[in-house]
Request: fold
Amino acid sequence: MKIQPRTLSGFMELLPRQQMLMESIMRTLRETYALYGFTPLDTPLIEASEVLLAKGGGETEKQIYRFTKGESDLSLRFDLTVPLAKYVALHYGELAFPFRRYQIGKVYRGERAQRGRFREFYQADIDIIGDGKLDIANEAEIPAIIYQTFSRLGLRQFQIRVNNRKILNGFYEILGLTEQAGEIMRTVDKLAKIGPDKVNALLTGELGLSGEQAGEILRFIGITGANGEVLEALEGYRGRCDLFDAGLDELGTVVKYLAAFGVPEENFAVDLTIARGLDYYTGTVYETFMTNHPEIGSICSGGRYDNLAEYYTDKLLPGVGISIGLTRLFYVLNEQGMLNTEIAAAPADVLLLPMTDDLSPAIALATQLRGAGIRVQLYTEQKKFKAKMSYADKTGVPYVVFVGEDEIREGVVACKDMATGEQTKLDVARTLARIQDGLTKRRDGAVILE
Amino acid sequence: MKIQPRTLSGFMELLPRQQMLMESIMRTLRETYALYGFTPLDTPLIEASEVLLAKGGGETEKQIYRFTKGESDLSLRFDLTVPLAKYVALHYGELAFPFRRYQIGKVYRGERAQRGRFREFYQADIDIIGDGKLDIANEAEIPAIIYQTFSRLGLRQFQIRVNNRKILNGFYEILGLTEQAGEIMRTVDKLAKIGPDKVNALLTGELGLSGEQAGEILRFIGITGANGEVLEALEGYRGRCDLFDAGLDELGTVVKYLAAFGVPEENFAVDLTIARGLDYYTGTVYETFMTNHPEIGSICSGGRYDNLAEYYTDKLLPGVGISIGLTRLFYVLNEQGMLNTEIAAAPADVLLLPMTDDLSPAIALATQLRGAGIRVQLYTEQKKFKAKMSYADKTGVPYVVFVGEDEIREGVVACKDMATGEQTKLDVARTLARIQDGLTKRRDGAVILE
Reply:
């Protein structure tokens, strides 16, 4: 009796060519994060439930994968932030602050399975954790990292939208609406979906605001334009609330350093409708949208928070971080046909076909090419020539090299460029040069095509 | 009330510097496997228990992390072979054979926790799967991959020991001991530990073999020497059993191609005591030992098998594969002080210290250096100079760059080499060249030191 092989629904399992693209994306993330001085971290996928659920409550507890093993109550991590908080609290004495780490890892949420929703998915997080304090320049650097990351992946049409929670909270304080600020922001968040009239109706209806208050709010979130224009309009509110003024200073600093950080104006916008949750974030907040695909939602979000590890330690550990939902992003890019299947998606650069009984010359050639950094697959199966070439086609290998009696006698190798069909008979050094040249050109492409 | 932060026992969680070394090892493995045409694979950590336990029974079921979520009976993978079998059976029609894949991933076994034993650990596997058949040249290539992998990691004193199950099974067939072969091999396996006399006593005692049979066995496993000598001695048994003869031919082929594959004689030995389990392997088997640390046991093992996915499909899928227990290897290397802490263990190449109120010039310099591939951390916290330099020491960053009013006016930057203490004031281009030069020299080192 055979067991039917299957992969659980909600769990992404890629075929080799797609996996190569995913690896390419991960490599780009690792390299980009490293450029900004982030250190890689790897924490267990399983933690004590008590530790993971220290904050407790809400959706988290319902979705979590929780189980017992022996006497231990264990859970799979549902994000990378809680394990980071545990890590920093636990290893506090051995870390240097600010502590900058990136982590690309799988997390688990038992959501209802539906198309494009995953129960096991990669998150790619970066965070900068301060000890007691953290300078605003760190918040200013985040848009540069987001910009570099997506640019290096090949994305062009995207915008990083930034706001500051102090500005929002300060504004509602000015209106005397501090206690209702949470509810109001949730309502205002619907602006793009339902329009200003319906937002106005909700504010004055359900939330019981005066027409004047609702008008102030709509006027405020209606402030748009170039970054300079938005900042100038916000200056009009200065002097009425310390929190607001502090937030405006911070936002000004973030905008001021954009150019020095190499972020083009068109990839960045101050957007007063961005709020990002209600309690956790306390300063700059970030969302990132693909300009031509607003329906996808934010592909990279985060913000400044004041206290990373309050459930584990009395130490004040403020930080700023962003997260990419990598599995979902990959899924979406694939659905949109935006992945560049031309680049390095084959497992080898060269398929080497020995045409002699004694494989020694072919093996020695494979060893030589590998020594030069060429990825070589030696194909020695007893198949017809046609089947061998069909294998080359199927794997997408760019070059096929043949080593036969004639070639060995003449001191050359035959090499076929599978893209052009062109075949050469050159000595090893010149064949190698030709292959290296071709590979360099192929590797130019980015993984995302727009 | 605070929750005590902790990491579960049996779960490795590294500090940043060690994590960097682990990343370096993983990068070397990925690059080496890719050179041989292996494609990366990533499968879910959770599978349906029915699928994962298709083979069932034994230690596996006791150690497995198994739980229910909703109505699903789920398990964490305990190795990477069963998920590979599922993957190949499930995606059979979409793969090109031979299918060569590598996978570096975490697996879970609820073993009793003790020093150096892990419940969550990385395995690094490569396998080559054929469709119906698989040529012996693939088995001959494996020692080359093992040799390259450990050489690139910096290991020198290691030996790949190889045997062939057909030779063993054929030999016991010649002696008329086929049914007892399993028990005999388990006993013979103790040779290095308990010596030939005690093995002889066990064979003639517990196992009830004749003195003559035991003598034949001890003579056989006593065949040692250079590869050519061992093969010659084995020729003396030829012609008495087809299975033995086939195994001897295969072993001869593996040895024949070693030189062409670039494996030095001293890193390879035919070893008739290597057996590797009883049922699964059917051809060449491999173990790898650190010559100066035999107590560690094999650090890379595997072999040829005839039927990868028999529990899922009628397709005959023979293969050959090897596995490195990466977490344990890392633990052991660390314990032995064999990890090279000199190499790239800092999260950044340059710590950039702005000495001006306006950070723009420092940020622009950071952006420029990053554009040249230098990993730069901008340090903007309001701390005393001494605290900043102590941060540089703690993170191990090799260069500190200062940008002050004087430097900006003179068009230079100050750069301190933290290893030598030498400080330069040069323009950006020359500072960059100096840093790049120094980094190139640093990166020469391998991650393992012997």
DSSP finds 16 helices and 16 strands in chain A. Residues 16-35 of chain A form the longest helix (20 residues).
